[in-house]
Amino acid sequence: MVKLRIASIDSVREGDLLGKAIFSDDGKVLLSSGVKLTGALISRLKSLGIQALYIEDHISEGIVIDDVISVKTRIEAKKIVKNIFEKKAMDLDTQYGKVSSIVNDIVDDVLNNRNSLINLIDIKTKDDYTFSHSVNVAVIATMMGVHLGYPIDKLRKLCLGGLLHDIGKVYVPKEIINKPGKLTPAEFEEIKKHPQYGYAMVKDCIEYCPITKAIILTHHEKSNGSGYPMGLTYDKIHECSRIVSIADIYDAMTSDRVYRRRINPSEVVEYIVAMTYEWFDLRTVESFRRCIAPYPLGTYVRLSTGDIAIVSGINNIMPTRPQVRIVEPCRGQMYRNVTIDLMRELSINIVDTEA
User: Fold this and answer.
1) Would you tell me how many other CB atoms lie within 10 Å of the CB of residue 278?
2) CA 153 to each of CA 134, 140, 242, 309: distance values in angstroms, whole numbers, following the listed order
3) Pairing outcome for strands 22-23 and 308-313
4) What is the pLDDT of residues 281-296, one digit of tens each?
5) In terms of C-beta density within 10 A (0-12 exposed, 13-18 middle, 19 or more buried), how is residue 309 classed?
6) What pLDDT shows up at residue 88?
7) Is 218 helix (H, G, I), strand (E, B) or coil?
8) Of 197, 170, 26, 172, which is closest to residue 86 (Cα–Cα)?
9) Which of 18, 77, 200, 318 has the most CB atoms around it within 10 Å of its CB?
């Protein structure tokens, strides 16, 4: 049985075993699972912008972390998105067959795992962020659509919009997209043009439906009218765009970037919930909360008892109270490896996540 935990790149040691393979932006394996890490490999991973890894060891005995979509589907989706971005989608109509096919695969995988929660922290290199992000947004949005009861045809339109939502960024200078520091006002204004750039690329493509086009154009609009590019209010924003907006923000904030480290999923979920009514509507936020595990499997957490534990199981009914295994007890060694179901032990809470 695969044993996995998530570890900060700074806490990884020589001799640790890589638990999940790391892929390049074109789907090639950079490092296979089970590889013993050396100092040189760790340095190389840092140079790729990787801030965390899945490690296989005795601490995470029996913790199996599965993705909502298959490895094959994820790799193929990233390849297709990369190809579209590199060609600046000059032939979007002719690409539709491949894009439509991978969308069908994503939707099928999600439907086959409809009762699962997203509890996988996606490890991205700095070079494949855009492509991995596009796939993640499509997956999260599709799961939200499933919880909202969308029929399969609408799920496919939603998924396609999620996959292509950032396509307009191909016309934003790379030095702005990859800038390691804060953007200037002028640079931010250029970034804000990407929905319009993307819409211009698809508006005359008859293969792409109005829902997908609306997502590309309006996924940065906010319920209170503070979004862009048009400052639309809630009643003027298609629900599918509101879904992709949440999926986009969640994956972006929980990802390592060149200018900051990822934010813990639990904190991002709290942030999105806090922005209900201002940026998002209650219906889509509730569907989002039903899809995401705030404390993913393999995550280290600090308990109100003072113990450090690792998340070993997810409670789908109450994902904020997972099952945890004590790995660093503060109450004596007898508590080491003790598993606590926080849905039953209501007096114990998670107070923080540990790197």
Assistant:
1) 10
2) 20, 17, 18, 42
3) unpaired
4) 999 999 999 999 999 9
5) buried
6) 66
7) helix
8) 170
9) 77
Asked if 118 and 140 touch (Cβ cutoff 8 Å), the reply is: yes
What is residue 90's predicted lDDT score, i.e. its pLDDT? 62
Evaluate if pTM is beyond 0.85: yes
3-class DSSP state of 111: helix
Helix (H) or strand (E) holding 354: strand 350-354
Contacts of 218 (CB under 8 A, 6+ apart): 195, 227, 230, 232, 237, 238, 241
Query: What is the largest distance, in Å, between two alpha-carbon atoms of the chain?
Result: 67
- pLDDT (tens digit, 9 = 90+) per residue, 175-206? 898 888 889 999 999 999 999 999 999 999 88
What is the pLDDT at residue 37? 92
Distance in angstroms (rounded) separating the CA atoms of residues 194 and 220: 10
CB distance 260 to 183 below 8 Å: no
Rounded to an integer, what distance in angstroms lies between the CA atom of residue 83 and that of residue 70? 20
If DSSP codes are grouped into helix, strand and coil, which group holds residue 292? strand
Cβ density class 16-44: b for 16+ within 10 Å, e for less: bebbbebbebebeebbeeebebeeebbee
DSSP 5: E
Peptide bond into 229 cis (omega under 30): yes
Strand pairing of 17-18 and 52-56? antiparallel
Give yes or no for a contact between 203 and 213, defined as CB atoms under 8 angstroms apart: yes
DSSP-derived secondary structure letter, 180 = S
Q: Ramachandran region of residue 311, left (φ > 0), alpha (ψ -120 to 50) or beta?
A: beta
- Tell whether the torsion through CA atoms of 282, 288, 290 and 293 is positive or negative: negative
**Cα gap 212→157, rounded to integer Å:** 6
| Angle at CA of residue 252, ends 249 and 258, nearest 5° | 150
